[in-house]
Amino acid sequence: MPTLVVAAHGSHLNPASSRPAHEHARRLRATGAFDTVQPAFWKEQPHFREALRTVPSEEIYLVPLFISEGYFTEQVIPREFRLAGWSGWESDGTSAVAATLSAQDTAQTVHYCGPVGTHDAMSDVIVRRAESVTGDPDVGEGVGLAVVGHGTERNENSAKAVRYHADRIRARDRFGEVQALFMDEEPAVDDVTDYFESSDVVVVPLFIADGYHTQEDIPEDMGLTDDYRTGWDTPATVDGHRIWYAGAVGTEPLLAEVVAERAADAGAEVNDRLRTEPERSGDDTVSFC
Fold first, then answer.
1. Are 140 and 176 contacting, i.e. CB atoms less than 8 angstroms apart?
2. N or C: which end of the chain has fewer CB within 10 A?
């Protein structure tokens, strides 16, 4: 059986940064769909450079636990995993699927997959996050949804995934309003209430892990609290709107299925075993039939 490697950023300073990768790997490992499920990190151990040497399989599915195509998924990961023949995806910024390559030093076959953040199934994870924070499995009618990303004018792909999922969810006509907002470009999350007429607004950050941006910057920028250290209410009232702040989408258990979908799109035999029954924050497992 092949091995699944989940490649994530990690952090020397924030232990919560690597938690989603470990938790999703544990959920996927429990399904038995792969011989081994191994997380690997840029800033923690096991490091990208050593990850392939620690797994026994000759065939690897390598899935980046990143939101967008860009520097990490197109330069850092292919370089650190020493993927021979890598020349980039043919992609418009959200359409990367997979490339089959060979690891230079171990000769393993590596199916290098697109990032989880641009997979169509991520739209479902965002909606699930909204359901989880409100406690309402039918949330949507008369409610606004803000999908929030980092954004940066230095890399246009950073915002593409956010706009892509906001457009897809808007097209479903489930929520009263859907907007894409950003930390470092316009429209800015600081002015979230200016972009919604709905009294209730769910805010879902399209980030993999909770950390500095999702637990300090965004809550303060939106006016949920003057000092993140004192916390905030959920919902919190800001300018007459009730703001339901969800925290990072990457902590939602359903994201483990997106990782599996990425591997399936590259040829892993897991599609017919995926179960689509709803699971919510607080659940520990992702199940396969």
1. yes
2. C
Q: Is 287 exposed, middle or buried (0-12, 13-18, 19+ CB in 10 A)?
A: middle
Sign of CA dihedral 217, 93, 122, 97: negative
The label of the residue with tokens 């209430």 reads: 193
pLDDT tens per residue across span 129-158: 999 999 999 999 999 999 999 987 767 787
SS3 196: coil
The per-residue pLDDT for range 202-253, each reduced to its tens digit, is 999 999 999 889 999 999 999 999 999 999 999 999 999 999 999 899 999 9
Phi, psi of 239, deg, nearest 5:
50, 40
